[in-house]
Specification:
alpha/beta, Alpha-Beta Plaits, Aminopeptidase, 6-stranded mixed β-sheet, 32% helix, 814 residues, 34 strands, 4 domains, globular, 9-stranded mixed β-sheet
């Protein structure tokens, strides 16, 4: 009865408080919660409110999605504050530099980062309406920034599915089709990326556009609205352990205070909820942790439901959970958050300034050296977060990331330096720290991510503040492109080189690469270096214009040479200099393929490498002539039926190249025709797992077999084409406790005697399987090739140093 009365109050509020302003239900033409609103309807309502109440609402479009849908935020406050938005922002951000004159609380509410967690956008409609009608008093000292839908592409994918397949009236039987999304569900964005794990890395278009605006405000409070399993009660903070050690006591205490305020409303209605479980505050790329490391009270709110719930579903305990129920819960916590901000505006401003006051971190500077291309890639991420950096040519002493020992970073070349003597010092420390302290090994995500490892850079963490200059490291290409050159040569070190190659291949320019190092004109070129000769492209119209354009667009330092007679090494006509084939590439999708890993592959080709890929779906894969393709990528998947496996093997025997990622390697291992072999757990360890354990401790026993995103130091065979462009060590991000024995030959990257990771958590049993294990390798199979990528080198698009392995698998391995 209480719930019915609360919901009834939602829909009649306008009759009493804002008869000239339509409620969401009045505007949409259906009762809120009786139908899923499409994105354009949501946007239309927000714009309608802004036009009806311009003194209280200002709309700002901050970008578009990959599919062209509008991204917007609404600034909501009283008339005086809306007029003074720029002043409020200026005074608020002044606190970063110690000025504490600000007196307004700034709250940011983010809805629907996961598209099929669709209730939150619906709840946002009622929340903004009530804020400008019944809850106006809270807005006197509070500015509320609302993003009604962080992931419009995913949301509309879910809503279009549900509205197409729902029963009429809706069916609460969870077995009905309306409760079962297809393979490409609505949770991720267009490229199947989880936007809630992309805050720190900014690999996705939506993330980059949002971060630009977010860092212009740096709110006091940020809430990320989610859904979880349909049988779960509501979750709100305080969060669970592990919490990062840099999260302040005040942040923890205020999370608890907000949670208690929510509890008073939930207790009154008899709604179930839980706190302090499951959702921790460690991994820095979430919508709660990234704000935490930027000075906010970052929080995740989780309503039971998700894509299974639809308009209504019967839960396991026999209750019916409706969309209206779910709206009521998110609506309640949203308003409760604003209420707490308004009541505590003074303290929020005081503590925000305190967060940005001087901090005494162990490491004052992080110095990094290596390939300029990788340095540039890292600085783009730093710029995204407004992290300051500089350069030095001086030697820098400190703790070496490579071995966790004291040492120094030497050499006359510029080194990138990121110090903690800046406003974003906490975020810098979290992103760069060599080892994250874990208060609990049961975590919700990966436990290691340090940027020097991710970008493949030599680095030291210094306890001293390193003096820097702002002078740029970027060089310039002074090559003259004319017919006098015999060839043009460039190094092979990173993704700019890969994009350069892809650009030439798309234009049918012929490119060679070298299997052996050589010297020419006083310069040294390592394995994998690209060679573009005039004679290979004699019949190519505008060859030099195409080459010059690709060089400039991909910032290549290219060398024009007048001869193919090298000073040392193999001449250009040697069999050691091989033509790169413009391969036709396909990837399997659907079925048991991981949507996230497929998305990583898809995004890599279209947004990072810029090279065509054909997507072959599980539904019709068996009707495809694989002979039309040179390369087939198997993203992570769980099974392949015997008939399909036989057709794939036959295609490889006839000259095809198969690339298996992550647990797709395990699928090949189960087919004994391949040479890959999983390492087995010691029988005694198996028996110990079977022995009776405490029920309460069973999960902690199980994690002994897991690796939850840990970094391992590996050995690299630099003579293997799969490893061209790399040095003799590589730091891999390991996401599984599985281990694989060395191949008979062609082990490109492998772990030697190390059992323990250099950073992150690995269970004791899982560690034993890592010693003397394969990471990346290749195997001849008939006239074809199989490439095993045991660890995912393109994980979430942020492990920059792994990407060239993937490109090598495509073009260098034959």
């Amino acid at each position: 009865m209480k719930l019915r009365l609360l919901l009834f109050s939602f829909f009649i509020t306008g009759l009493f408080y804002a008869q000239t302003v339509k409620s969401p239900s009045e505007f949409l033409g259906y009762e809120l919660g009786s139908y899923f609103s499409r994105h354009h309807q949501v946007i239309d309502y927000y714009k309608y409110l802004a036009n009806a109440l311009p003194e209280m609402i200002k709309i700002e479009s901050y970008g578009k999605t990959n599919e062209g849908r509008e991204l917007l935020i609404a600034y909501v406050s009283n008339a005086e504050n809306i007029k003074a938005l720029e002043t409020i922002k200026k005074e608020h951000l002044a606190a970063i530099n110690g000025d504490t004159n600000a007196d307004k609380a700034v709250v940011w509410l983010s809805y629907n980062v996961h598209g099929n967690e669709s209730v939150s956008t619906e709840a946002s409609l009622q929340t903004i309406y009530d804020l400008v009608t019944t809850k106006k008093d809270w807005l006197k000292n509070t500015l509320v920034i609302i993003d009604p839908c962080v992931n419009p592409d995913g949301r509309d994918r879910y809503v279009n599915f549900y509205n197409s397949f729902k029963n009429t009236p809706y069916n609460v039987d969870k077995n009905s089709k309306e409760h079962h999304e297809p393979w490409l569900a609505g949770r991720p964005n267009h490229y199947m990326f989880d936007l809630n794990r992309d805050w720190a890395w900014g690999t996705q278009l939506e993330s980059r556009q949002r971060l630009k605006v977010y860092n212009e405000w740096l709110p006091h409070i940020h809430v990320d609205f989610h859904e979880q399993g349909m049988d779960d009660p509501y979750y709100f903070p305080p969060a669970a352990e592990p919490m990062h050690e840099l999260i302040t006591d005040w942040q923890k205490d205020f999370q608890k205070a907000i949670g208690k305020n929510h509890a008073t409303y939930f207790d009154k209605e008899g709604w179930f909820y839980f706190t302090k479980e499951r959702f921790d505050l460690l991994y820095p790329s979430y919508g709660d942790t990234y704000p935490m490391y930027s000075g906010a009270i970052g929080m995740t709110y989780e309503q039971g439901g998700s894509g299974r719930a639809g308009l209504g579903v019967k839960t396991s305990n026999g209750d019916t959970l409706t969309l209206k129920d779910r709206i009521a819960h998110h609506y309640t916590t949203g308003l409760s958050t604003v209420e707490m901000a308004s009541k505590n505006a003074e303290e929020l401003n005081k503590q925000f300034a305190e967060f940005y006051s001087n901090k005494d971190f162990t490491y004052k500077s992080y110095a990094l050296a290596g390939d300029n291309e990788k340095i540039k890639a890292l600085t783009k991420v730093l710029d995204l977060h407004r992290i300051k950096y500089g350069y030095t040519k001086a030697n820098v002493k400190g703790m070496r990331f490579a071995d966790k020992k004291s040492g120094s970073l030497e050499g006359d070349d510029y080194k990138l330096v990121v110090s903690t003597n800046q406003p974003k010092s906490t975020l810098v420390t979290v992103l760069f720290e060599p080892e994250t302290k874990l208060s609990d090994s049961l975590t919700y995500d990966i436990t290691a991510w340090s940027l020097p490892y991710a970008y493949g850079l030599d680095a030291v963490a210094s306890t001293s503040l390193v003096n820097t200059t702002s002078e740029s490291m970027e060089g310039s290409n002074n090559t003259t492109f004319n017919n006098n050159a015999y060839a043009y040569v460039t190094d092979w070190n990173g993704m700019d080189d890969a994009r350069f190659l892809a650009a030439l291949l798309r234009e049918n320019v012929k490119v060679r690469f070298t299997h052996e190092p050589f010297e020419l004109n006083g310069k040294s070129f390592d394995r994998g270096s690209l060679i573009v000769t005039k004679s290979d492209n004699a019949n190519k119209k505008d060859f030099l214009k195409i080459l010059e354009k690709a060089t400039n667009e991909n910032q290549q330092e290219i060398t024009a040479v007048g001869t193919g007679f090298v000073d040392a090494g193999k001449d250009f006509g040697s069999s050691a200099v091989e033509m790169i084939k413009p391969v036709k590439i396909a990837a399997l999708s659907g079925g048991s393929v991981s949507t996230l890993n497929f998305g990583e592959v898809w995004h890599f080709f279209e947004q990072q490498l810029n090279y065509p890929i054909t997507v072959l779906d599980d539904d019709y894969f068996d009707r495809i002539d694989l002979g039309d393709y040179d390369v087939l990528i198997l993203p992570q998947l769980f099974n392949i039926d015997d008939t399909r496996m036989e057709s794939i093997k036959e295609w490889v025997r006839n000259g095809g190249k198969l690339i298996a990622i992550g647990n797709a390697v395990d699928v090949l291992d189960k087919d004994k025709a391949f040479g890959i072999e999983a390492k087995k757990q010691d029988e005694k360890e198996k028996d110990s797992i079977k022995n009776p354990q405490s029920y309460a401790l069973s999960s902690r026993e199980y994690i002994k077999n897991l690796i939850t995103g840990a970094i391992y130091k590996t050995k690299v065979d630099v003579t293997n084409p799969l490893a061209y462009g790399y040095g003799d060590t590589y730091f891999t991000l390991k996401l599984s406790g599985d281990g694989y024995a060395y191949l008979d030959s062609e082990n490109a990257v492998y772990i030697e005697d190390e059992k323990a990771p250099i950073a992150g958590f690995a269970g004791s049993n899982a560690q034993k399987l890592q010693s003397n294990s394969l990471v990346f390798g290749t195997e001849d199979f008939g006239r074809g090739k199989v490439v095993y990528l045991v660890d995912n080198p393109i994980f979430r698009g942020f492990w920059e140093n792994g990407k060239l392995f993937f490109v090598n698998a495509l073009f260098m391995v034959e």
